[in-house]
């Protein structure tokens, strides 16, 4: 600690004498960038082959924790869906209408169609409502623990209601 | 005025000054695109048209690209691997956007496609 302080003071004094126009408090350039330090940490960590201490296997699950990973999961799933759609437009022959005709010809039954619609719209609605919750946090609102739980529950209710509503359309 | 000068010298005193505001701007850009996409979804329902199709394609792929980018940053460690993953992601996003634009141009377009799918 004392060595660090001494090093900082020494640097500061040196810069004050050598380049007075650049001497602003705490403007000393660092030896390594954050990226370099991270790279060093990870290469050292992986080479040491340390066992990973239990985290998700022992930590008590909470609603915000579960909702956060679901936000990421739905995001990944939705992105995969969009990419699949885009790529198949380029690679799979036949128009969209012809593909829909093919699905219609399978005579899947209204219950299955309805379930499929619900399955499509559920992750979208969850990600959308939770996304709004995220944007609220970015504005600095609703960050207390009780507000977190309340908004989380509101998102879940809204997700179910909107998914049911949209699937019925 | 003095504060601005101090800030510019602060940025200049570091190495790699070009990237000093990049992360912050990226963050803001992510939020702007998110809000844009949020607005586009009801707008596309109320006013489906070709312009909406292309706006949706662009906003959707950009939001998705940046989102998956964050996932890569979180879980992929090591300089070379992360660079490879980010490049792969860029290729995927580029093809996705190309595919969606192709669909909008040569086929019915996103808005009409959703409407047709829902009438099933």
Automatic annotation (TrEMBL), chain A:
One biological process term from GO is: tricarboxylic acid cycle
Q: What is the protein's given name?
A: Succinate dehydrogenase cytochrome b560 subunit, mitochondrial
What does this protein do, in the record's words?
Membrane-anchoring subunit of succinate dehydrogenase (SDH) that is involved in complex II of the mitochondrial electron transport chain and is responsible for transferring electrons from succinate to ubiquinone (coenzyme Q). SDH also oxidizes malate to the non-canonical enol form of oxaloacetate, enol-oxaloacetate. Enol-oxaloacetate, which is a potent inhibitor of the succinate dehydrogenase activity, is further isomerized into keto-oxaloacetate.
Which Gene3D superfamilies does the annotation name? Fumarate reductase/succinate dehydrogenase, transmembrane subunit (1.20.1300.10), Single helix bin (1.20.5.540)
What quaternary arrangement does the UniProt entry report? Component of complex II composed of four subunits: the flavoprotein (FP) SDHA, iron-sulfur protein (IP) SDHB, and a cytochrome b560 composed of SDHC and SDHD.
- The record lists the organism as Bos taurus (Bovine)
- Name the family: Belongs to the cytochrome b560 family.
Specify one Pfam family: Sdh_cyt
Q: Which CDD domains match?
A: SQR_TypeC_SdhC (cd03499)
Tell me a GO cellular component: mitochondrial inner membrane
Q: Which UniProt keywords apply?
A: Electron transport, Heme, Iron, Membrane, Metal-binding, Mitochondrion, Mitochondrion inner membrane, Transit peptide, Transmembrane, Transmembrane helix, Transport, Tricarboxylic acid cycle
Keyword field contains Heme: yes
- Give the membrane topology: Multi-pass membrane protein
Q: Where in the cell is it found?
A: Mitochondrion inner membrane
Q: Pathway of this protein?
A: Carbohydrate metabolism; tricarboxylic acid cycle
Automatic annotation (TrEMBL), chain B:
Per the record, its GO cellular-component terms are: mitochondrial inner membrane
Major localisation: mitochondrion
Q: Which domain of life is it from?
A: Eukaryota
Q: Which GO terms describe its molecular function?
A: heme binding; metal ion binding; ubiquinone binding
Question: What keywords would UniProt list here?
Answer: Electron transport, Heme, Iron, Membrane, Metal-binding, Mitochondrion, Mitochondrion inner membrane, Transit peptide, Transmembrane, Transmembrane helix, Transport, Tricarboxylic acid cycle
Could you tell me which InterPro entries the record lists for this protein? CybS, SQR/QFR_C/D
Task: Write down the membrane topology.
Answer: Multi-pass membrane protein
Binding residues annotated for heme b, in chain numbering:
63
TM ranges: none
Q: List positions binding a ubiquinone.
A: 75
Main function = Membrane-anchoring subunit of succinate dehydrogenase (SDH) that is involved in complex II of the mitochondrial electron transport chain and is responsible for transferring electrons from succinate to ubiquinone (coenzyme Q). SDH also oxidizes malate to the non-canonical enol form of oxaloacetate, enol-oxaloacetate. Enol-oxaloacetate, which is a potent inhibitor of the succinate dehydrogenase activity, is further isomerized into keto-oxaloacetate.
Subunit architecture: Component of complex II composed of four subunits: the flavoprotein (FP) SDHA, iron-sulfur protein (IP) SDHB, and a cytochrome b560 composed of SDHC and SDHD.
Would you identify the family this protein belongs to, as annotated?
Belongs to the CybS family.
What is the name of this protein? Succinate dehydrogenase [ubiquinone] cytochrome b small subunit
- Species in which this protein is naturally found: Bos indicus x Bos taurus
């Amino acid at each position: 600690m004392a060595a660090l302080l001494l090093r900082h003071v020494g640097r500061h004094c040196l810069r004050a004498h050598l380049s007075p126009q650049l001497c602003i408090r705490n403007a000393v350039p660092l030896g390594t960038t954050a990226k370099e330090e991270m790279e060093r940490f990870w290469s050292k960590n992986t080479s040491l082959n340390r066992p990973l201490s239990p985290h998700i296997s022992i930590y008590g699950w909470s609603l915000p924790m579960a909702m956060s990973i679901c936000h990421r999961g739905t995001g990944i799933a939705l992105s995969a869906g969009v990419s699949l759609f885009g790529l198949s437009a380029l690679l799979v022959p036949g128009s969209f209408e012809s593909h829909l005709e093919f699905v219609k010809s399978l005579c899947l039954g209204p219950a299955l169609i309805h379930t499929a619609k619900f399955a499509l719209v559920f992750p979208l609605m969850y990600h959308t409502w939770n996304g709004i919750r995220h944007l609220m946090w970015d504005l600095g609102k609703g960050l207390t623990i009780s507000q977190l739980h309340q908004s989380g529950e509101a998102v879940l209710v809204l997700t179910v209601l909107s998914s049911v509503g949209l699937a019925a359309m | 005025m003095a504060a601005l000068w101090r800030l510019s010298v602060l940025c200049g005193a570091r190495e790699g000054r070009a990237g000093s505001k990049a992360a912050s701007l990226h963050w803001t850009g992510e939020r702007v695109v998110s809000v844009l996409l949020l607005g586009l979804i009801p707008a596309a329902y109320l006013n489906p048209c070709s312009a909406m199709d292309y706006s949706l394609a662009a906003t959707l792929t950009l939001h998705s690209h940046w989102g998956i980018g964050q996932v890569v940053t979180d879980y992929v460690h090591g300089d070379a691997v992360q660079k490879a993953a980010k490049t792969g992601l860029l290729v995927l996003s580029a093809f996705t956007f190309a595919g969606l634009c192709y669909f909008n141009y040569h086929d019915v377009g996103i808005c009409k496609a959703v409407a047709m799918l829902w009438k099933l």
